[in-house]
Write a structure and sequence with these properties.
binds calcium ion; Rossmann fold; 526 residues; 25 helices; globular; 51% helix; three-stranded antiparallel sheet; six-stranded mixed sheet; alpha/beta
């Protein structure tokens, strides 16, 4: 009852043009006004969406600088809370990419406050889980602080505290990235160990010394690097569980090699290798290796354990269905069963989300700005990503209606029965328009639709309307008597939201956060 009272207590009969402010709003980048996101919410948006590729209104660098300042403010307010947040988002696999978490952790590791720096450095192994992550962290942290003792010790601990077998796999699989190698980091950190196997491994990394104490994986990887036939390589891969990175380039077109790799391939590698597996003929219609690939892609537990993100699945589906790579000359004949399994796998990530049973209007901002910039460094525009997010909710819920809007309503040929990559293409091809985020509420009023919750997918750069979105929502509530809620799914990492943080019936979530669908459903049910 309290929340219903709250919803109706802020009565606003007013209609204010979006070019003018209303209480609580700030100017957005588009010449309109929106509510300012607090720095904790901005931290979440940045951790999930990143700032790669910029947006329609800001280039990549200004957007990154802007986000870095917001992250620094959160760190300044409560450093250990910020570090805990970074760790939580990263460990749960909520973001499509781990880079923003590594970037934010590097900022925390460079804070003035000693407790914050300690918490950040202690969290390095939890956020930098692979060799590549560690290289990225090194690159970020070097930009904001020096290589003092505490930082060297934290990097050294990464090499000392994981098991020797796991470390051997990390140094075989991830050799270098962005100008950093394990040798560079070991020369800085100088970790000391009394374990013969570990000492031999570190010695091999730094000096290439091959000794008897070296883990078998490293010795067999070195044999694999000299293998001269596909059969020889396949036997080594099978005997020692070697990853693709250890295979000499000359043998990477051999079907026998890919069969051996497929048998033990981590799920994220499988998703990235489907095209190659098809091109070399290992994955083919009715082929003997196809069931192995399909069952892995359909395994809910493996998807969760691998932190396979739905955006990665969607991108793999889109590329795979095209039959040719975005870069390079690789071409393949897509296998329909793989396409269907990828399409279904996207939804498995959210299988645990319980439907609300409420009447939901899923409204996609299809204005021009939503077709610029990229989500989380991917090839998807915010507009394309929003279509996939909306279909996810439409597939879970029983009563939904999907609409598009710019400055007016736009018919949207979108349904959960469509394949994801085709749905994404459908919104991608729409013409550009101006932005009025009040349109979904005005549309529902005009058509007499009964809506329990408006879910609006947008960059919050609204400006073209004669009434602010929250005013339109309050009009809707007053005229219909329905305590309708508003959920804003933010698709660009900026500091704005059309949701009023002071209104208990409005919520701002981050698009493509794997936790978002459950948060949205809980909020709507409440
Ligand atoms: Ca826009």
């Amino acid at each position: 009852m309290t929340s219903t009272l709250n919803i109706f207590s802020r009565r606003t009969a007013a209609a204010t043009a979006q070019t003018l402010p209303i209480p609580g709003t700030v100017p957005n980048t588009a010449g309109g006004h929106a509510f300012a996101l607090d720095d904790w919410a901005r931290l979440d948006r940045f951790l999930v969406l990143g700032s790669d590729g910029g947006s329609y209104y800001a280039g990549e660098r200004p957007l990154t600088r802007d986000n870095a300042q917001a992250v620094l403010r959160a760190i300044g307010m409560d450093g250990t809370r910020a570090v805990a947040r970074i760790v939580a988002v990263s460990e749960a696999g909520r973001a499509p990419k781990n880079d923003p978490a590594l970037f934010a952790l590097a900022l925390a590791a460079s804070a003035d406050d000693l407790a914050t720096r300690r918490a950040a450095l202690a969290a390095v192994p939890r956020v930098a889980r692979t060799g590549t992550h560690l290289f990225q962290f090194a690159e970020f942290v070097q930009a904001s602080r020096g290589w003092g003792r505490a930082l060297r010790r934290a990097v050294g601990a990464w090499y000392l505290e994981q098991s020797i077998d796991r470390l051997a796999y990390q140094v075989v699989k991830y050799r270098q990235r962005g100008g950093w190698s394990h040798r560079d980091l070991l020369r800085l950190a100088h970790p000391e160990t009394a374990e013969p196997g570990r000492a031999a491994l570190l010695d091999w990394v730094c000096r290439g010394t091959e000794s008897e104490a070296l883990p078998v994986l490293v010795r067999s990887a070195s044999s694999l690097s000299r293998a001269s036939s596909g059969a020889e390589a396949a036997a080594l891969i099978r005997a020692h569980d070697l990853p693709r990175e250890a295979v000499p380039t000359a043998l990477l077109n051999e079907a026998a090699v890919w069969e051996a790799l497929l048998e033990r391939m981590p799920l994220t590698a499988l998703v990235r290798s489907l095209a190659k597996l098809t091109a070399v003929g290992v994955v083919k219609p009715l082929g003997e290796w196809l069931p192995l690939a399909l069952s892995a892609l359909g395994d809910v537990d493996r998807i969760a354990k691998a932190r396979l993100h739905p955006l990665a699945i969607l991108l793999a589906l889109r590329t795979y269905a095209q039959g040719r790579g975005d870069r390079g000359a690789l071409q393949w004949e897509p296998v329909q069963a793989v396409i269907d399994t990828l399409n279904a796998a996207f939804y498995t990530v959210f299988r645990a989300v319980e439907p609300t049973g409420q009447r939901l209007l899923l409204a996609l901002d299809v204005s021009g700005s939503m077709a610029s910039g990229r989500v989380a460094g991917s090839s998807l525009t915010p507009r394309e990503a929003s279509a996939a997010m909306a279909l996810m909710t439409a597939a879970t819920e029983s009563s939904t209606h999907i609409v598009g809007f710019g400055a007016t309503m736009v018919p949207l040929p979108l349904s959960p029965s469509m394949r994801l990559d085709q749905a994404v293409q459908a919104v991608s091809d729409l013409p550009f328009a101006a932005t009025d985020c009040a349109q979904p509420m005005l549309y529902a009023l005009d058509r007499g639709l009964s809506i329990d919750a408006f879910v609006v997918y947008t960059d919050n750069e609204t400006w073209a309307g004669a009434v602010h979105p929250v005013q339109a929502l309050r009009q809707y509530r007053e005229r219909t008597g329905i305590a309708a809620k508003l959920v804003v799914v933010g698709l660009v990492s900026n500091g704005f939201s059309i949701a009023d943080p002071a209104d208990a019936g409005m919520l701002d979530v981050v698009g493509f956060d794997t936790a978002a669908p459950a948060v949205i459903a809980d909020f709507i049910r409440r």
